[in-house]
Write a sequence for this structure.
DNA sequence: GGAAATGTTTACCG
DNA sequence: CCGGTAAACATTTC
C-alpha cells in the first residue's frame, strides 16, 4: 500500500527490468484491473516498446514508442512483480521481450483498488494525472504557493497534506511521520497556522520520504514489496505511525492514536502542539 | 463478529 | 458553484 517512497522504489525496479523491452502481449485478468477511463483495452499495448517510467506522487506511467501511455495506480495493495512465484492476486500480465529474453510483468492487487489504463498525454501528463499536484521532489513544486494555498484553507493540517490536489505523494504513514518530525499536531487548523509551521511540515515530509526512498520504502508485511519481491526497511525508522502506546523517541510520552477522516493518526501529545 | 489496513472518488451538506 | 466532510469501493487479517 504504497505512498511516494514505495511507488518510487517500484519505479526504480521497473526502470531496471522493463525499459527497453517490447510488450509482446498484455492480458487483463480481473474486471477491475483496468480503469474505466482507459481509452482502449490494455491488450492494444502489444507491439509497444517501453522507453521510460515516470512518476508524479503515487501515479506511475510507462512512456512508449507511441504517443499514448500506460498509467498505473497501486491503490492500497497493488504491486508490479517480475516473474513472481505468487500469482494468486495477479490482475493483469504483460509479456516482455528484449532480444531473446522474455519476462512476465504481473500487476498484482489483493484489494483491487489499484488499476492500469491506456491514456493520452497533455503537455506530457496523462489524463488521470492532470489534476494531481506536483509532488515535493518535482522541480515544478512551488513551496511558497503550496504554503499560501494551505494557509487559505480551514482544514486540519493532516487532511491538507493528504490532499493530492495540494501536494501529491504523501499518504497516511508519511503524513504522521512528517507531522511528528515537524512537531505539529495533526489536527492543527491550517488557517490558524503560521507559514513557518506549514513550511516546516512540508520540509519534514520531504526529509522523511527522502530517507524512506534510500531504504526501499516501508513494508509491514508482503503487501508492499518491490518488483523483485523484496521488502523495504523504513518501518524500523518510524517514530509515530503504528506506535500507539509506545514512548515518543524524543520525550518519552506515549504516542496517541486518534481517528478522523476515516483514518488513524498517531502523534505525540506532548511534542506536537496545535500552534507554533 | 467488529475493526482496521500505506487510497481515491463520489455523494452530500451548508 | 465552492469548500469541507463522510461514505463507498474489495479483500484479508487480527
Amino acid at each position: 500500500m504504497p505512498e511516494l517512497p514505495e511507488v518510487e522504489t517500484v519505479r526504480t525496479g521497473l526502470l531496471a527490468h522493463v525499459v527497453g523491452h517490447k510488450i509482446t502481449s498484455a492480458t487483463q485478468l480481473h474486471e477491475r484491473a483496468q480503469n474505466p477511463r482507459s481509452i482502449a483495452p490494455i491488450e492494444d499495448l502489444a507491439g509497444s516498446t517501453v522507453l521510460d517510467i515516470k512518476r508524479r506522487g503515487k501515479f506511475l506511467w510507462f512512456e512508449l514508442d507511441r504517443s499514448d501511455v500506460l498509467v498505473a495506480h497501486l491503490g492500497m495493495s497493488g504491486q508490479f512483480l517480475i516473474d513472481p512465484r505468487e500469482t494468486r492476486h495477479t490482475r493483469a500480465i504483460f509479456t516482455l521481450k528484449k532480444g531473446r529474453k522474455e519476462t512476465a510483468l504481473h500487476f498484482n492487487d489483493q484489494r483491487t483498488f489499484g488499476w492500469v489504463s491506456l491514456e493520452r498525454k497533455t503537455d506530457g501528463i496523462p489524463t488521470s494525472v492532470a489534476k494531481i499536484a506536483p509532488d515535493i521532489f518535482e522541480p515544478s513544486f512551488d513551496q511558497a504557493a503550496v504554503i499560501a494555498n494551505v494557509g487559505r484553507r480551514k482544514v486540519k493540517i493532516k487532511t491538507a497534506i493528504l490532499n493530492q490536489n495540494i501536494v501529491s505523494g504523501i499518504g497516511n504513514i508519511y503524513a504522521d511521520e512528517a507531522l511528528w518530525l515537524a512537531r505539529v499536531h495533526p489536527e492543527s487548523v491550517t488557517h490558524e497556522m503560521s507559514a513557518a509551521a506549514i513550511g516546516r511540515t512540508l520540509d519534514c515530509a520531504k526529509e522523511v520520504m527522502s530517507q524512506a526512498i534510500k531504504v526501499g520504502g516501508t513494508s509491514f508485511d508482503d503487501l508492499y514489496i518491490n518488483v523483485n519481491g523484496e521488502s523495504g526497511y523504513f518501518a524500523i525508522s518510524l517514530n509515530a505511525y503504528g506506535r500507539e502506546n509506545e514512548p515518543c523517541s524524543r520525550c518519552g510520552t506515549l504516542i496517541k492514536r486518534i481517528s478522523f477522516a476515516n483514518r488513524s493518526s498517531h502523534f505525540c501529545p506532548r511534542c506536537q502542539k496545535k500552534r507554533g
